[in-house]
Amino acid sequence: MAKTIICEGKTTNEAIEKGLKELNVSRKMVEIKVLESEDKRSFFSILAPRIVKVEMKLKENVSEKEHEVKPKKEIILSDEEQEKAKNNIEIFLEELKKELPEDTKYIIEKAKNAIYVYLNSPNLGFLIGYRGETLYAMQNILTAIAGKGIENKVRVILDIEGYKAKREKTLEDLAEKVARTVIKTKKTVKLEPMQAYERKIIHTKLQENSKVETNSIGEEPYRRIVISLKK
Fold first, then answer.
1. Are 191 and 224 within 8 A, CB to CB?
2. Which residues make beta-bridge pairs with 227?
3. Of 68, 96, 118, 176, which has the fewest beta carbons less than 10 angstroms from its beta carbon?
4. Across the strands, what pairs with 157?
């Protein structure tokens, strides 16, 4: 019989997220039924704490592998496409520089599979944002701008003040520290939600570890890594 659980939260999404964490599965692997909605509150219950209950049932004969996303075929840009993408970005950055600190400099490097953009200045922390949120948003904007007039999809990789290298080192150190904790306590550890790029760093760092394994659970933007002992 398929496993069924009931979870509670202040909102439907919160209740569902709790259930996915408990079951350690993705949203596609469960059937969800809202038992009590936050919208259905009587006059007499208006002062009571807001609670939503959802019933979550694992779908039968479904494995995580069935939901794995197949890697996309890498797009190779021609020399002409690389040059056009670079020009598109350069035009945008020249205008953007007028709004940035005077000492801001940028470098654009062309490659067959991506365009790399580096912004440098001691005063660009506001373009990085909390855990790189603003940086990734700007990377998406540059991706859209770079692809104007180009048939192939252009991949843009943005870094500001070397943030990504520093963040990568921090995440690698975190992965090793948590792995040691898991081995010592024999307890599974769930990390906080991360960007796909950051989750990949954790997975890569621990893939050669003979004692622990990593898995991603949840739905974006709350998807996170679970580190546990290998069975």
1. yes
2. 189, 214
3. 68
4. 116
What's the domain range around 189?
165-229
Q: Is 10 found in the same domain as 48?
A: yes
**Token pair of 214, please?**
């990593």
Which residues, other chains included, contact 157 with Cβ-Cβ below 8 Å and sequence gap of 6+?
114, 115, 116, 117, 139
Within 8 A by CB and 6+ apart from 220, the residues are: 196
Domain check: are 85 and 130 in the same one?
yes
- Same domain, residue pair 93 and 134: yes
Tens-place pLDDT, residues 129-187: 888 889 989 999 999 999 999 988 999 999 999 898 888 899 999 999 999 999 999 99
- 211 and 179 both lie in a single domain: yes
